[in-house]
Known about the structure:
The protein is of the alpha/beta class. Helix content is 29%, strand content 18%. Strands 9-8-5-4-10-1-11-13-2-14 form a ten-stranded mixed beta sheet, sandwiched between helices. The protein has a four-stranded antiparallel beta sheet with strand order 16-17-18-21, covered by helices on one side. Strands 12-3-15 form a three-stranded mixed beta sheet. The longest helix is centred in the N-terminal third of the chain and has 30 residues, at 9-38. The protein binds 2-acetamido-2-deoxy-beta-D-glucopyranose (3 copies).
Amino acid sequence: MERMRSTPKKIICSVFIFGCILWYASFLHEHDTVVRSTKKPNIVFILADDLGWSDVGFNNPYVITPNIDRLAREGVILNQTYAAQSCGPSRATLMSGYFPYRLRYSVQLGAFFGQGLPLNLTLLPRTMQGLSYSTYMVGKWDLGFCKEEYTPTRRGFDKFYGYYMASGDHYTHSFLGHLDLHDNMDPDWSQNGTYSSYLYTHKAVEFIEDHDKTKPMFLYVAYQNVHSPLQVPKNYVDMYRSVKNVNRRKLLGMVSALDDGVGKIVKALKRNKLWENTVLLFLSDNGGPQNERCESSNWPLLGKKLQLFEGGTRVVGFVHGDMLPESGYRYHGMIHFVDWYPTLVGLAGGEITDQEVDGIDVWRALSMNRPSPRKEFVYNVMDRPYFCEAIRVGDYKMMRGSCGDVACRAPPPETEGKLGEPQCIEVWRKTGLYLYNLKDDPIERYNLAEKMSGKVRTLTARLEEYKKKYVPSFKRSEARIKEGQPDNFGGVWSPGWC
Ligand SMILES: *[C@@H]1O[C@H](CO)[C@@H](O)[C@H](O)[C@H]1NC(C)=O
Ligand SMILES: *[C@@H]1O[C@H](CO)[C@@H](O)[C@H](O)[C@H]1NC(C)=O
Ligand SMILES: *[C@@H]1O[C@H](CO)[C@@H](O)[C@H](O)[C@H]1NC(C)=O
């Protein structure tokens, strides 16, 4: 106060004006925040199929994905997000907020075996409908279709265009020679020859154009890329002339085709004035298959799709949205696919009422770059014959059972252009017990199980606790499979046989 009194008039005056500007700026900012938070955001969830850790440009400079890279850089790159080890279980978790082992999805059984996601669950799109969202889905469902009640439009999607199975031909849209392409409940025979990423992008754009702009939108685009078979228009393969391994060249072409699709969806959102209020998530459903053909790469992570090593379960992804208070960083906090359900419902202004849901809302932590509320999760629990289980608690991961005779590590990106032959380096793992400190050893080189038997005991006890909620997987029934054959349904994979 003493100093103030002695300050010349001129300075007081300018301090006042400056203060005024600050006050006005903060008013604007507050006003802005209020407007944003009362308007529900559009949510666009793009799920890539079998995309490996080093199969995108932001993790590997040899991969040509300019759209994905730009969005990732402008958003928040997820550096420690986990999915299940394969497609069906990951999607079951994403749609329900339950761990897959509670839903009979410990292992991947084809949808054509006559299974589905339990009907008493309220799936994510249904919850979004309840929050006044329009809900659209494009692409791969993979969560059952043997009766209509299992299919997307009966589980909460206003509109669906895509396929029921886990895979298929990228051009004929058939699985085992029979059509698997559906426009809501109707078979679509008209797209034989259209490449899958073109087809699904086109449909996603159409849903965006036709969307009633007075309502918020939940759009789930589950691309078929980059799942096998390795099929892609030649112009994309030609982008990778320097890559000697022909399988890798094709797969990377499929990745670039996917990237074009992502770019077109963003353009459509901008053209329709939806972009400023959109949260876009891009993720893979599991690690790359990284098999002996070595087409995909999870480098430097160990292992591949279907394995519980990090390469099979720790997935690439990012979140983008103008409403992120901060962006342009890698988020190192732990997230599991099970968390997206409550996180997206929270963003939509809702709350989870089902106390059994395993997921945790991670939006605050993720968007403010704070520690994650998720401190532990189950990779999987199961019984024989597939027995392999793992749990993460804090920095430690315990794994036991028959978790792969061989686990591969792909070669580093620097050698990408030089490879003529598949060069996965095999690391032999026999049945047994593993303990890794993932903070110090994220690429699983040092098994600490013998040295730290106390830690193994603690994590085993925790695993057994979770396992109390385990429900055994579906049994494959040959009679069922026969009843579901497309020959009984005009040559189309269709509901009506369970
Ligand atoms: C992502 O996580 C891995 C494994 O913990 C770490 O080695 C890597 O440095 C992280 N990436 C970046 C860019 O921070
Ligand atoms: C769904 O049904 C199963 C099996 O009957 C039951 O265990 C589970 O608690 C039910 N879940 C909900 C959310 O109602
Ligand atoms: C697609 O077209 C090819 C070539 O004409 C044909 O052999 C195939 O049966 C068609 N598939 C479907 C599912 O329509």
